[in-house]
Design a protein that fits this description.
It is a single chain. This protein is an alpha+beta fold. It folds into three domains: 125 residues, Arc Repressor Mutant, subunit A (Orthogonal Bundle), CATH 1.10.10; 184 residues, no CATH class; 76 residues. The protein has 15 helices and 13 strands. The protein is elongated.
């Protein structure tokens, strides 16, 4: 309960239950009415909310337009949630003001966006024994495509200071509704803005002027190096990709207001063209988005139905709808980079082969048997500046040469010893002959 509220800041017991204990959604299905089923599956979370309230960690925040109670953390509750989530208090984000008094329409859309992106899956062992219809629905949900990240991958109400500090952003700074960091799922960093189609498109588009200023801001990091400010807080791939393209921003439109979500998307796209429009790179056959913000849009209904893996995301400037990872990325650039890396590997292989062939052409040949030197023998003959009579022989022939020299030396010594013995014997005979004459 504390962790969910620490991320969402404002939530109903129903939303907390769907995130924290999704298996309960498939229990109590035998209750007579939807209201009684909701009451049963959220009972433990409503009790937990009351415990937080008694300890001064949460307060009642009014009711939604659907007449559901809203729970809001107090500053003490936010600090406790920071400990539970293992985050610094500065990383927790702010608490929306007056959310309950206005029906909490925008926070509810933010929460539903988080749930639709995570797509919490029930543990099937926790719904065992329930009616077969409920188990079948739970099984379908468990087998559906995965969402992005977990609860701890998300943060809400995060200030993006164009001036000032993270803790005290200057007036005119942006504030991201949601920030997602899920590198394991292919999303190193994603900012999300939720819109209920109540604001004019110009007001939504104006947020991207603030985003652009924030993305371009540089600050000194703890190692005294100057970096883009967002890189001092979040990590993302450097080099190809995030080094030149700003982090992507996802717009999620919920058709609550009187404006059409489709027309709202088109209007915002037209007004933000200077932020997202790339230029065609004929050499690589793709668009380059250096210094641009990848802006992607979808509706909450489509996100709920298809999830992030569904082709329901429109990248401004493209014609077709794509899955989220393709929409925030640049598949044509990825293909061009793959081709470039493959060409570089092939060129390097060609150079290596040429160098190997040239080296083989220089490799010495044994003067005795005609075989080429091994690398070890070649290196050995080149190691010293002193030349040897066997430098033109391979290792085995050199060994044979020295073995032959040893045989000859032994034979020569044996002959010398035999000759010396024969001479000594002859001298002894001569001495004996002389002695007999005397």
């Amino acid at each position: 309960m504390l962790s969910v509220l620490g991320v969402l800041k404002v939530a109903t017991a129903d939303q907390i239950q769907r995130l924290a204990a999704p298996h309960l959604t498939y229990r109590h299905t035998t209750k007579a009415t939807p209201a009684k089923r909701k009451e049963a599956r959220t009972a433990s979370h409503r009790a937990a909310a009351n415990d937080l309230r008694r300890h001064g960690l949460a307060v009642d925040g009014g009711r939604t337009r659907g007449n559901e109670e809203v729970r809001i953390l107090t500053p003490a509750g936010l600090a406790a949630a920071a400990i539970d989530l293992e985050r610094e208090i500065e990383e927790m984000g702010g608490i929306p003001r007056g959310a309950g008094r206005s029906g909490a329409s925008h926070p509810m859309t933010v929460n539903e966006t988080v749930i639709a992106l995570i797509r919490p899956k029930p543990g099937l062992d926790l719904v065992a024994g329930e009616p077969e219809e409920a188990v079948a629905v739970a099984r379908t949900a468990a087998r559906a495509p995965d969402g992005i990240g977990t609860l701890t991958s998300y943060a809400t109400e995060i200030a993006l200071p164009v001036k000032g500090t993270w803790k005290n952003p200057a007036i005119g700074s942006a504030r991201a509704d949601i920030v997602v960091t899920a590198p394991g799922d292919g999303v190193p960093l994603l900012f999300i803005e939720a819109d209920n189609c109540t604001e004019k498109a110009a007001l939504v588009a104006a947020k991207f002027d603030k985003y652009a200023r924030f993305f371009q801001r540089k600050e000194k990091d703890t190692d005294d190096s100057v970096k883009l400010m967002w890189r001092t807080r979040w990590s993302a791939p450097s080099g190809e990709g995030y080094e030149w393209v700003h982090p992507p921003v996802l717009l999620v439109f919920h058709h609550v207001g009187r404006r059409s979500a489709k027309k709202q998307m088109e209007a915002v796209a037209a007004l933000t063209r200077h932020h997202w429009k790339g230029h065609w790179d004929s050499e690589d056959g793709c668009h380059s988005y250096d210094g641009r913000i990848p802006i992607v849009a979808t509706t909450l209904d489509q996100l709920r139905e298809h999830g992030p893996a569904g082709p329901v995301f429109w990248r401004f400037g493209r014609k077709e709808l794509q899955p989220l990872l393709d929409a925030i990325g640049n598949p044509r650039l990825d293909a061009a980079l793959t081709r470039r890396r493959q060409a570089a590997r092939e060129e390097q292989q060609r150079r290596d082969e040429q160098q190997a062939a040239a080296r083989e052409a220089e490799r010495p040949v044994c003067a005795r048997c005609g075989t080429r030197f091994t690398d070890e023998r070649w290196q050995l003959t080149r190691r010293s500046s002193w030349r040897s009579e066997t430098d033109n022989l391979c290792g085995p022939c050199e060994s044979g040469h020295f073995a032959q020299l040893e045989v000859e030396r032994v034979a020569r010594r044996a002959a010398e010893e035999a000759a010396a013995g024969a001479a000594a014997e002859a001298e002894a005979k001569e001495n004996r002959r002389r002695f007999r004459r005397q």
